[in-house]
From TrEMBL:
Keywords for the protein's UniProt record, in alphabetical order: Flavoprotein, FMN, NAD, Oxidoreductase
Family: Belongs to the azoreductase type 1 family.
Protein name: FMN dependent NADH:quinone oxidoreductase
Gene Ontology MF, one: FMN binding
Organism taxonomic ancestry: Bacteria, Pseudomonadati, Pseudomonadota, Alphaproteobacteria, Hyphomicrobiales
Binding site for FMN: S10, S16, V17, S18, M95, Y96, N97, F98, S139, R140, G141, G142
Organism: Bradyrhizobium oligotrophicum S58
InterPro entries registered for this protein in UniProt: Flavodoxin_fold, Flavoprotein-like_sf, FMN-dep_NADH:Q_OxRdtase_AzoR1, NADH:quinone_OxRdtase_FMN_depd
Cofactor: how bound: Binds 1 FMN per subunit.
Catalytic reaction equation(s): 2 a quinone + NADH + H(+) = 2 a 1,4-benzosemiquinone + NAD(+); N,N-dimethyl-1,4-phenylenediamine + anthranilate + 2 NAD(+) = 2-(4-dimethylaminophenyl)diazenylbenzoate + 2 NADH + 2 H(+)
Amino acid sequence: MTQLLHIDSSVLGPNSVSRQVSAAIVGRFRQVTPGLEVTYRDVAAEPLSHLSGTHVAIAYGAPVEDPTVKAEVAAGQAALEEFLAADIVVIGAPMYNFSIPSQLKAWIDRIAVRGKTFSYGPNGPQGLAGGKRVIIAVSRGGHYGADTPMATFEHLETYLRSVFSFIGVTDLEFIAADGVQIGAEQREQALANALQTAGGLAA
């Protein structure tokens, strides 16, 4: 049975472009993947706590006494286990202030774990999470391509490419809806193009 993990991070609810595109991607996989099992996590509606010094200390063996911290550690462990179990990961990632939402960063901090998804050896870091297919639905208010004046402000796709490469993911795909804040016509066209791409994904 193929396991798919679906992550959404937009704070805009039904008005979110990235949520519409990520849902279309998952819908496409339901069509083309027999026996698909989907796990859904909305990190905007139910955010993971941001890392603290206490969390780091616990990772190095410090005892856990505070019930709130125990719950936070358990939630982080559950997020990691969901990711490790997934064959396919679909992420809705809108650009906020030139990068990813802080809620998505908190999730990444729970899956980028030494000894679980990466390790350090004599030849440097080694990714341990290879073999997964990761598709990211991106929405950006403007245009940030390499040939645009805003190219140096793009820290969403560049960051996600870096972090997933670091943990060993080489099968990484982006479906982008760009310029969604330029105007209603541009938003509609960008969304339509992204949905069409999502609908044509191969198994």
